[in-house]
Amino acid sequence: MYIISNDSYIFIFYLYVFLRFFFQFMVYKQHKQVINDSVWNKSQRDYQVQQIYLPFILNKINYLQFIRELFLFLDLQVLQIRSYILSIIDMILRKSILIISIILMLIFILFQLTLCSKEANDKYTESFKQLSETKFGRTLLETIQIHIASNEPISNLIEMFESLENKIITVQEKSDASFQRTKSKCDKDLSQLTEQIDSYILKSKQLKSDLELLNPQLKVFTATVERKEKELVEYKNELDKAQIKRKQENEQYKQILDDLEQALFGVNSVKTEFNGFVLSITKGQQKFQSFAEIRKIMKTVRHDIKLEGYKYLISIISLLTQQVQDEEIQVQLELSKQAIGILKQAEVYIQQERIREDLAEQNREQLFQDFSKMIENYLISTNQEFVETSGLLESISNNFKGNTQDKKEIDIRIKQKQDELQDIQNECNVIETEYNTQTAGREDQRNLIEQALILTSTSLGQLKKDLLSN
Length: 470
Hints:
Mean pLDDT: 76
Number of helices: 8
Oligomer: single chain
Helix content: over 70%
């Protein structure tokens, strides 16, 4: 490929720019003069264009074609130069990046080697420290020191450590199997106890719900029974009071009848005496010398009569008799007749009183019988309700007591099962803790053996130096 130098390229570039602008300006000026000349008419313009300007324009076109090809050639050269420069820059950049990458890789490898060396040293120090801090690790170090001192092959020591590690693994596998069996048994026992506890708790809740339903019913029926019992007592008291009252009324009735009978007897006796006195006067029978005998009888009768009204009546008649006992017979006869009339009226009144008392007694007896029958009906119905309610109360009370006792027993069982569950859980936790402790101890021993194997295999010289220094 033909390549132009840098100085030539600069000169050609400026020349290209100048000619391009000049050519564009000339073409624009010629075309403007031909097209926009308004002085010529159309025929003159056409003639001038065909005869004068057309050859000139054709020549210009050839010239312009040459100039265009020249500029295209110059553009192509500029593009080639630019591509060449860019390829050189790209090559330089590629080589620079490769060199920088190689340098960075070498720095990274050096850093990694330094880091690995430091990490290996730190790991060795940490491993030796771990072996030195535990009893089992010190035993391993002493074993390593003994083998180093005995000049035996390191392979024997490695085989011994591997054998010891295999024994630890075997013991751990047996411990795992035993723990899995124990754990399965613990899980089974805990699951069974948990199911039993859940069943008891569900039953306890059901009994509690039943007790909550029975308790209001028990209170209601208890209050009903107490109320019915109180009503029975009240009805019996009312009946007793009515019977006592009836008895008192009957006694009063009998007493009134006795008093009326005594009054009637007394009045009749006094009337008989006055009738005898009147007959003795009117029919010429034996006549009394005075009212003295009548007054004596009236005095006796007055003391026997208990009714104050009739007693007072006899007293008045006796007083009148006393006043006229010294009077003439005719006056005494008149008084006697009047007294007999009064006493007859008194007898009639007494008879009427007896009839009224009999009717009143019959009414009282009828009322008492009606009241007694009503109270007895109340007693019968209330007693029946009392018996029925008492039966229901006894049934509910028995259910309540039974449920209460059952709930108490179930709660005791729940407590016992929960204690048993807690004991098994504690026992299983102890077994698991012991297993975890032993497993952690064996894992630590395996780690220490692995650390000892690593130190023996990789850092025997440093290990020997450190053992001798200690």
